[in-house]
Amino acid sequence: MDTLYRYGLLWLAFAWYMLTATAQTQPDFHTVSGVVRSEDTGKGIAHISVTVPQEHVSTVTNADGYFVLKTRQMPQRITLSHVGYRTKEVTLDRQTQNLEIMLKPSVVMLTEIIVNSGDAREILKAAVAKIPANFSGNAELFRGFYRETTRKGRRYIYVGEAVIDMYKTAYNRPVAGDRVRIDKARRLLSPNAADTLGAKVQGGPTLPLYVDVAKNVEYIFSDAEMMNYDYRLDTPTAIDDRPQIVIDMRPRLTVNYPLYFGRIFIDRNTLAFTRVELELDMSDKAKATMAMLVRKPVGVRFKPKELRIIADYVTQQGVTRLNYVQSSSVFGCEWKRKLFSSNYRVTAEMVVTDRYPEATPIAGRSSFDSRSSLFDKVELFEDSHFWGKDNIIEPTENLLKAIDKLKHKLQKDRSE
Known about the structure:
The protein has helices at 2-23, 120-129, 131-134, 207-210, 223-226, 285-292, 374-377, 397-415; strands at 30-38, 49-51, 58-60, 66-71, 77-82, 85-91, 99-103, 140-152, 155-168, 179-189, 200-201, 229-233, 237-239, 242-251, 260-267, 273-280, 293-295, 300-316, 319-335, 342-356.
């Protein structure tokens, strides 16, 4: 234990030296921060897209509505948008930090309800057919922030974070050519043996590749897959002040794998996908386990309870691209010879923070394996300057408290 501790100190000292030396050569960056609240309730709004107009820089708000946006040049304006709220453009003057921004709920005019006279299935098929026209026709490189957390009951027992590079081929090309590379990462985990997670579920840094349903059409939008669902038009809404067709989907047939319930948001004018929300059908636990579970130790019974997926898109200058994804799994683990089971919630999310039109493919040997987890690949370390100029998703208050507790526990164990 002492040898590992000394090795860790030497490694941290070396990492600090390298990061300090690198920081001296890095250009300065500007920080814009604040909280976004609903004008109706005064509560913070999660997953608000915060972008700099005409630039390829963005982030999203955390669960409490807070955001931090870092840019190389001081932005004059930022734009905020979300489902069900009016898009707002904020002019930045002298104050760029600790902003408090209020968003008004959007109101869809009564005339928009005429869309309900259409056929939901045909509208969805038309949107799929227009993917090559609405989405990027060129290969692109994205930089993103990825975070995964595990809660046992109400306690956080693991936090992993990474800055990733994501190479995406044109949307008329197969998803097999897309790659994710980890640039830098860190993790904190509970040292208590009793907090060990009893199973590994779907997720990981490659999440944005297969959850991008506009690119990975076979996931739920192939002709054969669409036959398994019923579709109906729901109440229309607005995103970025643009009217949206909202389609509700639910399983129609019984097949040998689990299906989803979902809501699909489609831009009424362009038929571009703007948001997809999916919830796995839990009526057959064996099928749900097949979709969620990657592996588990011998002697552990896996009990699936919930799987929700969100894929968010943003349209800039007439081209739609992936902006944010989230996967949230809830399950129980029952150990043989133990009286009580443990409930876990594993959440993974990724936001695109920068985009580079000139893209060089990521080599297969440098890419992250979809069968691996960030937990398995990242050595435990802590450095307050780790993120530097990269954009992140601001941690929620509960997550900050959990990180502090984990740090304190780790420091206490090392001192002993």
